[in-house]
Amino acid sequence: MVITMPRGTQDILPEESKKWQYIENKLREISNNFCYEEIRTPMFESTELFSRGVGDTTDIVQKEMYTFLDKGNRSITLRPEGTAGTVRSYIENKLFAKTIQPQKLYYVGPMFRYERKQKGRYRQFVQYGVEVIGDESPKIDAEVISLAYNIYKMFGIENIKVSINSLGNPEERQAYNEALIKHFEPRIHEFDEDCNNRLYKNPMRILDCKVDADHELVKTAPKLLEYLGEESKQYFAEVLKHLDNLGVKYEVDHNLVRGLDYYTHTAFEIMIDNPNVELKTLCGGGRYNGLIKLLEGPEDKKGIGFALSIERLLLALESENIELPIEETIDVFIVSMGEKAGTYGVKLTNDLRLAGFKVQNDYFDKKMKTQMKIADRYNAKFSIIVGESELETAEVIIKNMENFEQENIKQENIISYLEMKLRGEQ
Ligand code: HAM
After folding, report:
1. Angle, nearest 10°, between helix axes 14-33 and 138-154?
2. Of 60, 343, 421, 424, which sits most exposed with the smallest number of CB within 10 A?
3. pTM over 0.90
4. How many angstroms does the Cα of residue 81 sit away from the middle of ligand 1?
5. Which of 127, 131, 262, 295 to mutate for ligand 1's pocket (most ligand atoms within 8 Å of CB)?
6. Are β-strands 67-69 and 75-78 bridged in parallel, bridged antiparallel, or unpaired?
């Protein structure tokens, strides 16, 4: 039987991986400009990190984790997200003691969730995420949201919507949760099984229910805003003020609750505003002030971050008909005729590659016409043609593949000639 890739995964073939590289480079570039540094944490962690960090009642922990016992009988989980691992590492490596605070970190890497397969939803997907851990300030919240927003703008995706909410502090949420329980309890039997399970464990998630989203009780549920204290309201107002200042367009959505337990205060999502796209959420994040303490780190350290998947970014680009400016050319293709010239061609290819040019040659001593065709297939900017007679005069012919002009160049001048032509260097 032919072995195929596991459900919910994908092979990224060379044509596609060029796009991935382009996107990842751009993400690294913008992270660098915003002064975020890369952190690489393991792809698997102790299961307890996620059950404690992400939350026992979340869909991720209850249904979606790839969990197994290793040969030492330890429960291990393939990371379903990057925040818990980053915070674990922040604590374990005492990043809170670094002189530069807050620590501004980013990551790019595969995450794993056993989810129902759907366009834009994979079981292995790549998240780019940032986490700012240390002290809190509305300016940091706004910076993080602005970074996420501007990533989509940078790729030319204009039809996006930022939804933002404040989830308050744990006490405020507690009071709100109690109000929600009171609200839903008498008629919870009208909801699906998931919502019934959520009623006492995590009632806010009933508002997030996909099945019963239009239920009258969801619409008439108490609003979290009414349960926020002055300080939380003030903090949220400050975040919005800074977002206005930064030109980030957003909508306050008081029903926005995120699917992970660690959020406090600012929470946000970025959606694509395109009717042809089924899975709208491109990015999600928020503040998680309790998580550092929950994972036994310093009590006063707080964090905020977001993550987006490159898979959904690519879908957004596709749905907006945006072509990435990917260069599909090579600098030089080397065409050789005859055995001696062929050997010289192999060496010249190697030398030019080591001098920093992108170069290919023919391996199979094909006819000149065929070699020129291959040069075209590679979209070569120049071809270098060498035969027995050129070898005798220690020259090559360099042909500009765009305007077909060609010149005889001394072998020792090839590199300087190409530098001048391709890089404008004298
Ligand atoms: P999340 O909302 O679970 O948050 O995921 C963030 C983003 O990852 C989603 O908006 C979506 O773009 C992408 N994503 C999630 N699941 C899949 C999937 N199965 N296939 C493709 N893409 C997917 C988190 O993961 C938090 N750790 C974000 C965060 C960072 N909050 C604070 N810091």
Report:
1. 150
2. 424
3. yes
4. 7
5. 127
6. antiparallel
